[in-house]
């Protein structure tokens, strides 16, 4: 059994087409070729934190994967990143552990960013005509933008956050990566001037109102991954022409869609899975003026794909 | 973060009072001092296997524990033990991993055996007047007997199994440990001659009939840990004077009690938890002629206790 540390994982990632690995996972999932039980969850009150256990396997695969990802939101005050975790790969024939990937949450961050880029590839206006709007200033706010490079040429960005210090750091870092970044503390400005919006916060109250969203906007909501968290006014989903879920069963229980379903603002049979669009089994955006929403709660099949790809890459090297 | 291999774990265990650690865990659990979400489960068809993910934390503890335990039942044919797995310990304040215990399922085996001994301490006739009956010839059939030494002086054993070869090996191994072991392929003989019976098989059909059980018998059923597995005729639970669960919420969903509840042969409010008896909050056996049953499905609090005890012992050494 291999214990693989983060530097080795980063090295292996250089040879992996993360977007294509994750896309193949979503396709397999939506075609019923994956076994993905409900997410395991532990919550902590003091200090506040949550831990998600996502696990499963592809029926035609060789391994099964168990992923642990934690978010402890007071960590930054202690000089620690809020997210952490590891991925475990086991043999599907015998249960023997084959690898412990001590990724400190990095693979979760990466596969989440890849999900955002895939959603944009299917649903964002093409080309993005105005700006990319990012809600949040943390790791995902950075990675989402980096991964969007693979699917759009737009480099004009408006970032929203709650603190000037974090916004300044975000602008500095992303400017250094070649983006043209403005910042705001008014989320309505994002809605009014951006046509590809990505929300990356752990908010438990809506940050964007339905009235502010303009025709031709795509929103990827990836911050909300529990039943409590919420970034979008549920009326946005009601107003949208197309709402996609990374996993319909999972979005029934957690994320933006769960709030819209609970409020009876939409019907489950209107939902389409990201994997169905990626597979060509369902259409993505069909009209420039559509409002589209992708609700990404994070599916174990993303973890399965990235973890097995890293183990395979290290085996090949 | 420490990666701890099996030899280190075995060494650490020498300084740990496993029975008392596990007992304290059951007490904390039954007093509501533990957070233990439902068990995560993955099942495999070809080859047949199941994986259980048990996890949680004590509210006053320092860590949280995630335990992975697999059973792949064709493994022995490949020269491999059927069980495998690992335990992971994380910091409850930050989510940082503190230890990966590569125990290959050993800690699960040990804490399961400790559960059996604790059930016998509360419920077995004292002294055991006839014989200890063991159904099964695998690792648990061995460990249960070893751990029973801590709670009874009885060394007379009747072991039941389906194959002569396995029975012979079991007799040889346990005789070498000082037990006086007879074997049988007739489970009714166990019911008829043993007053402390432990069932340790992965059976999906009842092995013991209600009519065969005599007054003054205690049965610990620990093989059945899924909704499908079953070792006891549900009528045994209906006939018993006292039925205890390691976890009432968990036994509602899996194990012997779930079958008896589904068949409406008993009522959930008749159940008592092992931790309540260990705490002195409920009586155990009160009469020599009672029939008692303990249904042990395996609770994360056992894993929490054993994993944190090992990490503590290694930190102290």
Secondary structure layout:
The structure is a homodimer of 317-residue chains.
Chain A: E1 2-5, H1 6-13, H2 18-30, E2 34-35, E3 40-44, E4 49-58, E5 63-72, E6 83-91, E7 97-102, H3 106-123, E8 131-135, H4 139-148, E9 156-160, H5 164-176, E10 180-184, H6 187-193, E11 194-199, E12 218-221, H7 234-239, E13 242-245, H8 248-253, H9 256-262, E14 272-273, H10 274-278, E15 292-295, H11 300-316
Kindly describe this structure.
2 copies of one chain form a homodimer. Chain A has 2 domains: 2-108 and 301-316, 2-Layer Sandwich (ornithine cyclodeaminase, domain 1); 124-298, 3-Layer(aba) Sandwich (Rossmann fold), CATH 3.40.50.720. Chain A is built from 11 helices and 15 strands. Chain A has helices at residues 6-13, 18-30, 106-123, 139-148, 164-176, 187-193, 234-239, 248-253, 256-262, 274-278, 300-316; strands at 2-5, 34-35, 40-44, 49-58, 63-72, 83-91, 97-102, 131-135, 156-160, 180-184, 194-199, 218-221, 242-245, 272-273, 292-295. Chain A has an 8-stranded parallel β-sheet, with helices on both faces. In chain A, strands 1, 2, 3, 4, 5, 6 and 7 form a 7-stranded mixed β-sheet that branches. Chain A is globular and about 55 Å long. The model of chain A has no long low-confidence stretch (mean pLDDT 96).
């Amino acid at each position: 059994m291999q214990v693989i540390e983060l530097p080795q994982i980063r090295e292996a990632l250089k040879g992996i087409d993360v977007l294509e690995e994750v896309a193949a996972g979503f396709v397999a999932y939506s075609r019923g070729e994956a076994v993905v039980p409900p997410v395991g969850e532990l919550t902590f009150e003091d200090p506040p934190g949550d831990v998600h256990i996502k696990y499963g396997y592809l029926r035609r695969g060789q391994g099964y994967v168990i992923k642990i990802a934690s978010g402890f939101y007071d960590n930054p005050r202690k000089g620690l990143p809020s997210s952490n975790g590891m991925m475990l790969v086991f043999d599907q024939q015998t249960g023997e552990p084959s690898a412990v990937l001590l990724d400190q949450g990095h693979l979760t961050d990466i596969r989440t960013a890849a999900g955002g880029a895939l959603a944009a590839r299917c649903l964002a206006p093409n080309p993005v005509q105005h700006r990319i709007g990012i809600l949040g200033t943390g790791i995902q706010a950075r990675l989402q933008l980096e991964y969007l490079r693979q699917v759009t040429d737009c480099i004009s960005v408006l970032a929203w956050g709650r603190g000037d210090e974090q916004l300044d750091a975000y602008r500095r870092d992303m400017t250094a990566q070649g983006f043209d970044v403005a910042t705001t503390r008014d989320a309505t400005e994002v809605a009014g001037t951006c046509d590809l919006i990505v929300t990356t916060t752990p908010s438990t109250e809506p940050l964007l109102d339905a009235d502010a969203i303009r025709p031709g906007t795509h929103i990827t909501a990836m911050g909300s991954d529990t039943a409590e968290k919420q970034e979008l006014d549920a009326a946005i989903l009601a107003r949208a022409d197309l709402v996609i879920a990374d996993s319909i069963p999972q979005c029934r229980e957690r994320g933006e869609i769960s709030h819209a379903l609970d409020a009876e603002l939409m019907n489950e049979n209107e939902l389409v899975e990201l994997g169905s669009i990626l597979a060509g089994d369902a259409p993505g955006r069909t009209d420039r003026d559509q409002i589209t929403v992708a609700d990404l709660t994070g599916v174990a099949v993303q973890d399965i794909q990235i973890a097995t790809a890293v183990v395979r890459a290290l085996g090949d090297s």
